[in-house]
């Protein structure tokens, strides 16, 4: 719903073109894959833990997709994660 809600503002065709822009195509594919995993785990397998893990991955993929609309946001978050997760002090 979060990605689809922007189709109301700018139109579904423009939204689809922007989703499959070369900058966003991998983030879109990962997001769609996570949505499908959530549906499979929740409705098909009925496993709560796998569903929860897939939901967290889906939220992270949506966050990464949203960062693509802000100039240099992905690079800034990547650099921040490298600095936070660096083990050398």
UniProtKB/TrEMBL annotation:
GO biological process: protein transport; vesicle-mediated transport
Keyword tags: Membrane, Protein transport, Transmembrane, Transmembrane helix, Transport
Bilayer-spanning residue ranges: 23-43, 49-67
Membrane topology: Multi-pass membrane protein
One Gene Ontology cellular component annotation held by this UniProt entry: membrane
Chief site of localization: membrane
Signal peptide: none
Subcellular location: Membrane
Key word Protein transport present: yes
Pfam families, alphabetized: Got1 (PF04178)
Similarity comment: Belongs to the SFT2 family.
Chain's role: May be involved in fusion of retrograde transport vesicles derived from an endocytic compartment with the Golgi complex.
Record's protein name: Vesicle transport protein
Species whose genome carries this gene: Eleusine coracana subsp. coracana
The encoding gene: ga23711
């Amino acid at each position: 719903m979060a990605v689809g809600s922007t189709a109301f503002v700018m139109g579904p065709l423009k939204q689809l073109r922007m989703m499959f822009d070369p900058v966003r195509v991998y983030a879109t594919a990962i997001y769609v894959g996570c949505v499908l995993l959530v549906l499979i785990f929740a409705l098909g397998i009925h496993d709560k833990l796998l569903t929860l893990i897939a939901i967290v991955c889906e939220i992270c993929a949506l966050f990464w997709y949203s960062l693509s609309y802000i100039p240099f946001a992905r690079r800034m978050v990547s650099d921040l994660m490298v600095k936070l997760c660096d083990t050398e002090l």
